[in-house]
Task: structure prediction
Amino acid sequence: MIASSAVNDWPTLLAAVLSRYDEILLEAVASAVVRPRGAISASDRAERIIGAVDNPVIVDRRLGEIGDASPPSRHLLAIMAHFHAVRVPLADAVSLLATLGHGNPLVAVRCALEAGLVFPDLRQPGSAEVGQGILHSFEAWLAGTPVAHLALLIPPVVMSRALPFSLGLPDIRKGELIRATAAQAAFVTEQQRRTTEGLPLLEDTPATPVDPVLPLGGAIEGDGFDIPCRLAVLWQMAGEAPVRLTQAGEFYRRDSDRLRQLPALSIDDDLIAAKLPDYSGFLVDLARTTGVLACQDTDLVPGTFPVEWQSGIYGMLESLYRSLFDVRVWNPRDGWKPEPETANPFPSAELLALLLLAELPGTTWVRPADIENWIHQHHPYWKGAQRPGRVAPWLEAWLAGVAQPLRLVEMARLGLSDTDGRAVRLSGIGRWLTGQGNQPGEPPNYPQAMVVQPNLEILVYRQALTPLLLSRLTQIGAWKSLGNACVLLLDKDTVYRGLESGESLEDIKTLLENHSGRQLPGSVMDQLKTWAGRRERLTVFPAATLLEFASNTDLDEALSRGMPIQRVGDRFAVLLDEALGYKHVRIAGNRDYGLPPEPCLVVGDDGVTLTVDVGRSDLLLEIELPLLTDPVTHGERGVVCLTPASLQRATNAGWTSEDIARWFLRRAGHNLTPAGRALLTAHTATGLLERRLVLTLSSDDVLDGLMQWPTTAACLGERLGPCSVVVPADKIEALAAGLKQLGLEIPINL
Amino acid sequence: MNGQRFVVKVHRRVPLVVAEDPLLLEEILARKKAATDIAGRLNERVLVIRQGRAEGLVDELRQMGHTPRVQGR
Result:
């Protein structure tokens, strides 16, 4: 659907991107980033670039150099690092450079590309594959359309070394017209130029400081689990039935209703809910970018919880922060709005809002509207916009509905109720994620997180929840309500889902007992055992490796030797461990069921005896032969025979003559033999067994004559062959007389 | 056979259903929709599934109220 920012194998991706660089371009980038003393051979260039951008010492040196040579490019690298993602849409990077006051952001991007510190994302939109074609120049790539598909890749080491770095953002308490440092410098330069050239100066309205903010009451900060819990509910909902999207990217009516009607997917604060459209759409988009929901064509199905969730709350919040700016179908002003060809300005504005907050002292509160006004004055998407739809407020709702639950900001009331407005400031976690502070200390660990009730309901306390516990509980139960104490219900399907995800009965028991601090109620344990036991009764192997032993004894001995196999018949066993399983065996034949079947029967001269080519036969033949054939000798494998009884057996089992003929063609490689056909169709023929007088001559030519000469022709019956003809009993004398006229006397042997 | 290697024929990528109880397989074969996914019965406890039908059969088994263990997906 949309390319994800997640890059699992960075060196492979970069190698694929560099493979599309033109020779000259690659040489130029290699020289810029590696700075070799001599020439780099053409075959080594890509490898040297990959090595250089992975080397912190070289990266630090290049960052210093680009900071001196092209400050806008250094700003670009810092901006990209703030996204915490390897892939950043070009439109976002360019918008933020323009917001900082850089007049020609694309030149800054080109310089960074030429310096080899960022790279163009040459993957096909929505695909992990790098496309075909050669990249001759960065200018041509930067001019590509649609702009929403263009993105930059920043090497992880460059990302980690590009911060901390001041972007020169202003203190927005000084007013919405206050400029960023780069913008102010550009303004002063322009005024000087105009003064020198005698041109009229640009109008400069001084910024008016905003009113001081005095919140009432304390700061409200989320626990960080509000949105992850909702993602967990969404994961379970998609497991019941996929969330389906139309080709245009809209939800189908049924799925739209499902999302709207699920209370856990709605925002609790009515005031924010009214201002933040389509909150469930935000959750779906965030789930998609985090991988909690996976795209299968146009369906969204349950994916996997991010691995960062295993490292605790800060790992989870950082992964959500990274994914937040990849939410591009939804935006806080219009809700779910799929426009794949259009760049979405909101992620860059959201990051900008957090970076503006990061410029303020830690205890300082501001109104969201003051930040939003500054963004509207300086971000190129809003700058100069007059249309009411475009300048409609959205930031306060986003801060309260998204950033605060993710613990990026703290909020406080400006009056006695929420309607009096709210103030905002960056939280400790927000400061850490925006590079303004260290990671906060580890949160307290509460050992007892839940109560397991005999009615299979589990009460989970939010303050004791951890990301790992949340993801494991989501696998084995169904969330019924979310709140300070969440309710999870165990049932047959959810426990089965947990077992399918790799949990064992013992794992589930240990998880519930460890976090509840007591033994499971007997009824719960009994129920879990019953459900787990039912699962053991049927096993489906979608693609098993089956070993066929020569005899039952061999299989018994293989098992006694401890081979990793599971017996599924007298001579058959499923191989459970491909790595260890072949140590004790010699492979006599190999059959892949992903390939079409091969002819594997050799037909004897009698047309009914079939010899199995063991090297090419397959399992299905093992199933088919006992039905369609009989063994030639009792107990002997490999030689069988088509018999009337065997074919009758197949017919009784529902095989038609055509089915049997097709089977024979598939298995023997040619059409059914006449003997085989006779076995199948003889019963449809009619016949008569009788005695007849036959005249047999030594010459077919003479018989042709007798058949034509009227005197003898009247005495002859059906011709049986070239030299034989039937003679009716009452015509013997007339025939003898006729033959005598021809001088042919034949002995009569009656 | 002590110490010797066993001579085997390897059947790769075979979709199978293995049941603890042969009656379960009878039940599956009696279900029209599930039976169309079955290529044949290898023995009283094992069914061979038609190529590409394993996922569909698992869904159908769940519809039937079973909770099959899917191994090696």
In short: The longest strand of chain A covers residues 538-549. Residues 1-6 of chain A have pLDDT under 50 and may be disordered. Chain A touches chain B through 51 residues (CB under 8 Å). The two ends of chain A are 92 Å apart (CA to CA).
